[in-house]
Specification:
Elements (H helix, E strand, L loop, with lengths): L9 H7 L1 E6 L15 E14 L2 E13 L5 E6 L4 E7 L6 H6 L10 E3 L2 H18 L6 H19 L10 H15 L15 H7 L4 H12 L3 H19 L4 H7 L5 H12 L3 H6 L1
Antiparallel strand pairs: 1-5, 2-3, 2-4, 2-5, 3-6
Helix pairs in contact: 3-4, 5-7, 9-10
Pfam family, one: HTH_18
Protein name: AraC family transcriptional regulator
Keywords: DNA-binding, Transcription, Transcription regulation
């Protein structure tokens, strides 16, 4: 479900596939949480608290902030107004593999990168170049902005390398493969394509591992059993589908791989303490 953003021509964004704009000091950011159909990266200067998925993130000073379109987010509080730049773009505008493989947009990783003065100046020069190109009639501005986005993504990874760039042992590698496979199943886009991998044995089969080895590896690295990771991710997706789609509870249940809505109701209540219908009304 896509929400409108004040001050942004959503139809123009969807047609062009990108938009670049400056955040004015007096500009109020949208507070409503929703899934959107575009990625976002920003160079933000301010002091605020942002809810990103289930996490509360503190943005202080000048930071780069990367937003996965499938993670609901909103500003919770501000100490002062924010300023900076934002670039919004659709998956179709960029190379989808570059986005899917980038740790910057990986669900569960911290999307905030603090900048020192040198990095701030460099990033500001890139965003200014994108902003100037956006308002020009240059016939190849799409290519220019696409290249600038890639440059920001690569420079951001140089500033803050991904945590999972290297693995200390086989358990670390197996855990990374499991978590990556788990995350690649989401978000659920339609109710007629049920979730395929829902238990440790199915994940072990897909990874060509013995289920006991998978369980030991994941537990040793994360401190939580494989089944707990699966249940938490299914519950998080269930909450998102109940909040941000108009699907029936039965549709949500089937999309998440439950044969009967009653099974889903019991599963959801066991994990969250409330029923799907009650959660939707809150």
């Amino acid at each position: 479900m896509t929400e409108e953003i004040p001050g942004v021509n959503m139809e123009d964004l969807r047609l062009k596939g990108f938009r670049v704009h400056e955040l004015q000091a007096s500009q109020e950011l949208p507070l409503r949480r929703a899934r959107r159909d575009f990625y976002k990266m920003g160079l933000v200067n301010g002091d605020m608290t942002v809810q990103y998925g289930e996490e509360l993130l503190e943005l202080k000073g000048t930071v780069l902030f990367f937003v996965n379109p499938n993670v609901p987010h909103s500003v919770v509080s501000r100490v002062n107004r924010t300023s900076g730049y934002a670039c919004l773009f659709t998956e179709a505008f960029m190379n989808s593999r570059e986005l899917h493989d980038s740790p910057l947009f990986r669900v569960g990783d911290n999307p905030v990168i603090p900048l020192d003065s040198a990095h701030e100046a460099f990033m500001e020069s890139i965003f200014r170049k994108m902003l100037a190109a956006y308002h020009e009639d240059y016939p190849y501005k799409s290519d220019l902005i696409r290249n600038c986005i890639s440059l920001v993504l690569h420079e951001a990874l140089r500033i803050q390398p991904p945590k999972h760039a290297a693995f200390q042992n086989g358990s670390g590698r197996v855990t990374h493969l499991f978590l990556d496979l788990l995350e690649r199943q989401f978000p659920i886009e339609r109710p007629n394509g049920p979730l395929r991998l829902r238990n440790p044995q199915q994940f072990a089969d897909r990874l060509s591992l013995h289920v006991n080895y998978l369980n030991r590896a994941v537990k040793s690295v994360t401190g939580k059993p494989t089944s707990a990771h699966i249940a938490a991710r299914i519950a998080a997706e269930a909450k998102a589908l109940l909040q941000y789609t108009d699907w029936s509870v039965a549709d949500v249940a089937y999309a998440l791989g439950f044969e009967y809505p009653a099974y889903f109701n019991n599963y959801f209540k066991r994990l969250t303490g409330t029923t799907p219908n009650t959660f939707r009304k809150v």
